[in-house]
Structures are given as structure tokens and as C-alpha cells.
Design a protein that fits this description.
The protein contains three helices and 19 strands.
Length: about 250
């Protein structure tokens, strides 16, 4: 049975987050809003005509750019959320489970994901067409090396690890100009991605005072808070909200 894109995303996000939630501690849950007073720009169709395989996969449907996706009730999907302060000096085991990115219908699934530093990232080609995985980190700042990996056939899997923390590592396919995604390498397991309703949950945090940061790929969208201060208690669930809107022009 052919899986829908939503089914693929749900399955891979479960795999990606495997081993992240810890058994004890507290949690942070929240929602990423999009300012309801601002117009939501329409998603643009992807032009896949250069590869007949990609066009055929979509069966006459129109694939859309994932640069921004709005969820129900004026929310924003695919916002990466992580603990950016409060865990200094603490060490956590790297999950044995690998994070998965797949290439299906000439698109990366999921579009936004995170890994712990040192955790395996497996990138699979599930398409019967040539892809390449071009990983473009900020090498000068983080020391993570650039890589360009060819995947000429269906079923090929490449395993990658990032040695250093870095937000927004860009991955693209040079064969198909519209294909791209982002990976965040984090030095701990406390991160999440906002879902189709703009919601996220980070579980298993030791009690304490923390700061959260958020990241969205479209740089003309900005959050109302650069950081969010949160208090986590044992067994508690701290609630937060962040609202994005277009940056104001001078």
C-alpha cells in the first residue's frame, strides 16, 4: 500500500524522536502561533518538470514548497524548539536509535528534524531516481564538514554524524533544485519540532530553570520572544507560547 506524505512524516518523526524522551523529570509543552492579524502567504508550487519520475510520483497533484507551512488555528509548523540554556556541564547518553530522513517523491521527509551530537543520521533514497545529499554546515563556525553524497538508486542509505552542535544545517539535492531540508545538531536530547497544529512537547527534563530558543527557516518571520524562560518541576508540565510574525520593515 502506498503511504501518503502525512503518513511518512508521522512515521519518520516517531523514529526521529526515539530515545529522546527520558523516564523522569518534567516536561515543557507549548504552541507556536502565527500572528492572526498578519496575512498568511500562500505556499508556492514546486516545479518538478525536469524529472519525469518526480512528476509521475505525484500523480497529477501539485507538490508545494515547505519553506513555510501554517497549521490550524493560526499556528506555524516546522519550528525547531530546543533548550538553549540551563544544561551546561551536564552530559546525556547519545540515543542508540538513528534519526531518519527519507527522500520520497523527490522531497526530503521530514523537512525539519534534530539529532544529538554524535547520534547517527540515516538518509535514505526511496525514489527510483538519482539524488545527491549535499550537506552544507557553517564549517567556519562549527567545524562540521561539508559533504556531498551521491545516491543513484532506490534503497541506498547513508549514515552521517555531526561532531559539533549547530542550528539549521542545510541539506539540498543538487540534481533537483527544489529539494532541501534542515537538521539541527544539539548537545542534549531536549528538543522538538512543532507539528501540524503548531504544538510541541519536550519530555524528561531535570527540574530547574531553563531558556528555550526557537528557529524557523524563513528569516523574514520573527518570534515575539528571542528566548523563553521556563521553570521545570519534577512531574510537572510547563506551558509556553511563542508567536511569529513578519519582521517589521524600517
Amino acid at each position: 500500500m502506498k503511504m501518503t506524505r502525512t503518513q511518512w512524516m508521522s512515521m519518520l518523526l516517531v523514529i526521529a524522536m526515539a530515545g529522546v524522551a527520558l523516564a523522569e523529570g518534567g516536561s515543557i509543552s507549548g504552541v507556536i502561533n502565527y500572528n492572526k492579524n498578519e496575512k498568511q502567504p500562500a505556499r508556492k508550487p514546486l516545479q518538478m518538470g525536469t524529472d519525469p519520475y518526480c512528476v509521475k510520483h505525484w500523480g497529477g497533484q501539485q507538490a508545494l514548497n515547505e519553506r513555510w507551512i501554517f497549521g490550524k488555528d493560526d499556528t506555524l509548523v516546522n519550528v525547531f524548539v530546543w533548550v538553549s540554556k540551563g544544561l551546561e556541564g551536564k552530559k546525556f547518553d547519545v540515543p542508540a536509535e538513528a534519526v531518519q530522513i527519507d527522500q520520497v517523491g523527490c522531497m526530503y521527509i521530514p523537512h525539519i528534524t534534530g539529532v544529538m551530537v554524535g547520534q547517527e543520521l540515516k538518509v535514505r533514497n526511496s525514489d527510483a531516481t538519482l539524488h545527491n545529499v549535499h550537506i552544507i554546515p557553517d564549517t567556519a563556525t562549527t567545524g562540521n564538514p561539508e559533504k556531498n553524497i551521491g545516491q543513484p538508486g532506490k534503497g541506498i542509505v547513508e549514515t552521517i554524524k555531526f561532531k559539533n552542535a549547530e542550528a539549521g544545517i542545510y541539506i539540498k539535492c543538487d540534481v533537483h533544485a527544489w529539494m532541501n531540508c534542515y537538521v539541527h545538531a544539539v548537545p542534549h536530547p531536549f528538543f522538538a519540532v512543532s507539528d501540524d497544529a503548531g504544538k510541541f512537547t519536550i519530555k524528561g527534563l531535570p527540574p530547574g530553570e531553563y531558556e528555550l530558543s526557537t528557529w524557523h527557516e524563513f528569516k523574514l518571520f520573527a518570534p515575539d520572544k528571542d528566548v523563553i524562560k521556563v521553570t521545570v518541576t519534577e512531574g510537572g508540565d510547563a506551558k509556553v507560547e511563542v508567536t511569529y510574525a513578519p519582521k517589521k520593515r524600517d
